[in-house]
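Follow-up to my post from last week.
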Amino acid sequence: MNFRSDNTAPAAPEIIAALTSVNESAAPAYGEDQWSKRLNERFSAVFEREAQVFTVASGTAANAICVASLAPPWGAVLCHREAHIECDECGAAEFYSGGAKLVLIDGEAAKLTPAALEEGIARNARGIHSVQPSAVSVSQTTERGAVYSPAELAALGRVAKGAGLSVHMDGARFGNAVASLGCKPADITWRAGVDLLSFGATKNGAIAAEAIVCFDPRRAEEIARRRKRSGHLLSKGRFVAAQLLAYLENDLWLKLAARSNAMAMRLGESAGPHLSHPVESNQLFIKPGPDAIAKLRAAGAEFYDWGDAQSGEARLVVSWNQSEADISAMSKALASLR
Amino acid sequence: MNFRSDNTAPAAPEIIAALTSVNESAAPAYGEDQWSKRLNERFSAVFEREAQVFTVASGTAANAICVASLAPPWGAVLCHREAHIECDECGAAEFYSGGAKLVLIDGEAAKLTPAALEEGIARNARGIHSVQPSAVSVSQTTERGAVYSPAELAALGRVAKGAGLSVHMDGARFGNAVASLGCKPADITWRAGVDLLSFGATKNGAIAAEAIVCFDPRRAEEIARRRKRSGHLLSKGRFVAAQLLAYLENDLWLKLAARSNAMAMRLGESAGPHLSHPVESNQLFIKPGPDAIAKLRAAGAEFYDWGDAQSGEARLVVSWNQSEADISAMSKALASLR
Amino acid sequence: MNFRSDNTAPAAPEIIAALTSVNESAAPAYGEDQWSKRLNERFSAVFEREAQVFTVASGTAANAICVASLAPPWGAVLCHREAHIECDECGAAEFYSGGAKLVLIDGEAAKLTPAALEEGIARNARGIHSVQPSAVSVSQTTERGAVYSPAELAALGRVAKGAGLSVHMDGARFGNAVASLGCKPADITWRAGVDLLSFGATKNGAIAAEAIVCFDPRRAEEIARRRKRSGHLLSKGRFVAAQLLAYLENDLWLKLAARSNAMAMRLGESAGPHLSHPVESNQLFIKPGPDAIAKLRAAGAEFYDWGDAQSGEARLVVSWNQSEADISAMSKALASLR
Amino acid sequence: MNFRSDNTAPAAPEIIAALTSVNESAAPAYGEDQWSKRLNERFSAVFEREAQVFTVASGTAANAICVASLAPPWGAVLCHREAHIECDECGAAEFYSGGAKLVLIDGEAAKLTPAALEEGIARNARGIHSVQPSAVSVSQTTERGAVYSPAELAALGRVAKGAGLSVHMDGARFGNAVASLGCKPADITWRAGVDLLSFGATKNGAIAAEAIVCFDPRRAEEIARRRKRSGHLLSKGRFVAAQLLAYLENDLWLKLAARSNAMAMRLGESAGPHLSHPVESNQLFIKPGPDAIAKLRAAGAEFYDWGDAQSGEARLVVSWNQSEADISAMSKALASLR
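User reply:
Got it. Predicted complex:
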């Protein structure tokens, strides 16, 4: 019953097969191979708009390059207090941007609201003496597993654009969001004002395949430079491209995400009143108290504590290949707490 | 007859097999898996000394993190004018280090000599108004395919250490150097004063596997932080670790390197008087003039021009899997120029 | 009745006289003049300990160089949410440090408490994925005009040092603090654990004279480099040194500060119940509501609104040369609000 | 006979008087005072074009902010191998720009030629793997005391603009250049393609007054941000503004510069065949050999050695207030070497 994280999961067989298939002969380096060169077209089709795609080695790199490309060194990037870029990337956004500042906003289930965003922008626009609000970064799904609706994102986008800010989306679990909403990828990205998307595949079945999807052609050159300069332009780029092509092929990404979402919802039903938030994707948060947490661990469940140390809250993440047996056993364990 | 670069080559079958084998089940993320945890011990055995290993996604990342860990932002890093860190990394060393300066030194076959290094240090130590010489970076093999002997490196190391400088080695083709010299890896690294090594596997048969090998324990924490912060700590680290373990297993790395070295030397014999430098590893440089270069291309050879535009010089790189047929055909083409 | 800020005040006659007196003949540049060379000794006497002094052009420069010298790029610097380094320096700390993060702590009157500091450190020490708490920065006087007692600072210093953090003090109004407490400068700096002090003279009677006072000799070389590299090592350094020597001569700094402190306290007595905080230095904060604020302005008073926009709160700063007439008129205006 | 540097000189009486005159009463801070607000208009008149002026504390700061505003972090800035930004600013350009690279060009008397500039640009434009030529920085006067004619600068400007590069001028001794040429300031700045000028007053009679003169309104916001963020926006800005206004008043700057230029030329006539370069401003370089250098020192002359250590070359700088006696004595000493 390992629910530590979806990044403990292996890669899907389709991904491994894709790696093998591109290994037959020599291919041009640094993204000039035939697979890398198909990425722009492939993503443009998925997103119903011309997009430029830049593969990188990690979600941290994708996020940091995006943030740096949207905010000058004296900029402020508004994000949720629990955002991955704030809490889990060891200051990558500050490093890549040359010292931009993250301005933290509170909100239920790690979501931003238009009102909170407006307030955050207003509070930090104080002329030459303060940093300059330049971008907002939202996570879809959020760090609490919540999913913004297209309308919610469009509302945030309007506030941002109205104040002259750009919009970045941390989509480390973007597939889970699309699968959960049943929407078009475009509905929660550029149609809602998103300029740059960190598109994650690693957690949902790839080995190491993350991409920046750029909807604003004016940013492309800068992104390319930042990627090269940070060591994220790989010489044998075909192996990342192959993963991403296989990930999109036949909607593999949505099938894998839909499966882990569904299993998480089953766990959520078992957890019932102990849920911290409604389950909307493949992560669930429960707060049954310290004793119950200990009981779950004693039953063999593995997961991380969450939030304040003594609060008895935990995060469970369902992986794309989580076994039926795991889910049944965990459901039972959760139900026993009620 | 594709001799463009060894990074156009596919991965060796042992590397692909290793990837597949670690994909069976869940494993802890961020380097806590069993394969990643074996890296320190494995490399320590190869290098006959306790070493700490940090995998990264590219040689550029390895080099830049090393340089930044050896030089403060106001430091100067001395390197050859043709060094990869100067010419081919889009300013990565400057980015990671917060603006350290590369001081360029000339030398035959892209090698530094102790005298040139001494002169470079002296010329750049001018008190508070100038940057402060802090490290030297050498490439082994060099960007011209030359190989430093253990004695040559030890002499450079003595100059560096005598002046209070640290030593970095860009070992993008480290295996080719060891195979060429028939020495111990230790002889051309820490025994010669090298503090940090960029250990490359990608060009010599891996998919994407580069590592920083740290011989100075005081630098380890800083390297770990810089790696995380730049997005090079991968969540599914086992896939990189597996490549490196397979690469070292049964001396695969030295076998692959020895083969490409030997084939390059065969080409060198055919090129004879047209060689720019003696062939010492898997790269050769020929300077038969523009007409001869055109003739080679007409015969189906692929390679990059090198040096000044109109000089009629070219670089040929032999890959680990270069075919016997390629070598025979190219040998013939080269011999025909004489 | 201009109470906008003490940096609107002219320079004291002693400061102007000092400038003139060092202008008689040629003098070595870049701090090698006789006046600059006396600074270390002079400050060491004032602080009862060997100290190294680095003049800079602004308090922002002093603060940013200090923070960068105490925290690595991946470090976290804990400070109050209203700290000048957070709110008023356009990201200077992030710029100079290469992207360190400011972690914000709440506290009455812009003061940190040991408990809040401990909690802030604990909340932000999460291993490799988060930035690393490295330093704490306190303002003395605070941005709300409060003054830490020696015991309060010592308690903060113990928490910081116990957790391995260094301590920086933003002393833009350091003279006002010393005059208010009647203590030795040492009591609220190195004796309480302060490693680096931004010592401000500009607000309290100088033209442009700020200094970093370094109590930790191991930091001196780094500070010198950062100062040079940021353009704060002045060629004609004698003119800054002369200001600082005159400022310390015959306790001019404490006399000027004592005067403005005393006048602020008189205003505080008039404001009575409208004070946001007790008056402890030359700044006072009143919260009589929007109508009363408008009334003060109508009476000819000039000052800045403070805090939330509609709260009807204001900051009054008394300058070293504030006239008796100003104080009388303002006292009357404040008293009329009661 | 102190010819060490013009920054060892005191300030001109007019500058001191200006400081005193603005010290009478309170004035708004951070450049909102009446003197600072006149700077744009005053410089616009001098330069016959609308310009925006940003005062900073040092020439290093002016240069570094200019370079950072013209080149992205992945940019290359082409300059002479002896340029102040390369040799004497401890990496300030790299710091402010976030790691841009200085590409060094050779040229007689520290001057760039159009051909050398073209070659430097071509050599460094190698696509994504190398930094991107973005700006050229010229020094007027040069570090060897030479002066570019308007036509020479225009030719450089055409090469730069033709290749898409911006142009920065390091005018630490700009007044000496204008006085030497007898031209309009516009002729050697924006009319020749200069986008940003570091305008120095400190060496030529001020205390500490340097300014960035911005001829490209699109750069102004960025310059303002970089200035604030680096601690160069002074709270009591009037004292710098007053120096600059006095410096321009009645052509004081040109009178002072013309005087030191003329005296340097007298020394040049005495030095005759020992001159390294013709004398064109207030610096002269002589190369009479080590023995003659020692003889000059024995006669009481103070100056810096220049160039290679044992070459017996020296730099003499004439200050605005150099005495007639100094010049006579030095002329005699120089003549005695012939």
